[in-house]
Amino acid sequence: SCDNLYKQVRMLQATMINSNQIDAAYESLLNVVFYFILGLIVLVIMESYPFAAFPSLTGVLLGFAFIFGPASSKYFEGLMLVFLREPYDIGDRIALSDIDQDTKRSGSSTWFVEGVTLFTTTVRYGTTNEVATLANGSLANSRIINAARSPKANVQ
């Protein structure tokens, strides 16, 4: 009973540290957007009219859109996974498989979630204690079976 209480306190502590890291990263993203808009407003007040330069920069912006488009797409898929779907939490036992393939009858391989950030999820393989860091954008396109939320799932 003391061991279970200790494990629950450790999981709560790890979850709170993880939440603080995600909140700090999310706050920095919002700060960048806020200061960009504030800078535009200051330039308009100073009668500089930064919008006149936008037509000449569209070629450069279009080039950057083709260069960084796929990476930003994966990044936002990962953000949606962490903030909206929330398929797992620290300490959960999960199984990962391709979304197009059926799960094996013998069960899926087991991973334990050790950490979640805005960009990555750190997991430990159940049988060999192998540690892997997975991109949240790639996990967004995977089937995730959470043993904590699916108690009747056959996960080995």
Can you walk through the features of this model?
With 156 residues, the chain is of the alpha+beta class. The chain is built from three helices and five strands, in the order H-H-E-E-E-E-H-E. It has a five-stranded antiparallel beta sheet with strand order 4-3-2-1-5. The radius of gyration is 21 Å and the shape is elongated.
Nearest-integer average pLDDT? 79
What spatial form do the alpha-carbon principal axes imply? elongated
Contiguous helical run count: 3
Q: What is the strand arrangement across the widest sheet?
A: 4-3-2-1-5
Low-confidence stretches: none
What fraction of residues sit in β-strands? 15-25%
Give the H and E element order: HHEEEEHE
Q: Assembly state here?
A: single chain
User: What structural class results from the helix and strand content?
Assistant: alpha+beta
Please outline the major beta sheet: 5 strands, antiparallel
Number of E strands: 5
Whole-Å distance between the termini? 25 Å
What's the Cα radius of gyration?
21 Å
Helix proportion of residues, in percent? Answer: 40-55%
Write a concise keyword list for the protein shown above.
5 strands; 18% strand; single chain; 3 helices; elongated; alpha+beta; 156 residues; 5-stranded antiparallel beta sheet
Present the secondary structure layout.
Layout (H helix, E strand, L loop, with lengths): L1 H44 L8 H32 L7 E6 L12 E6 L3 E6 L5 E5 H4 L2 E5 L10
Antiparallel strand pairs: 1-2, 1-5, 2-3, 3-4
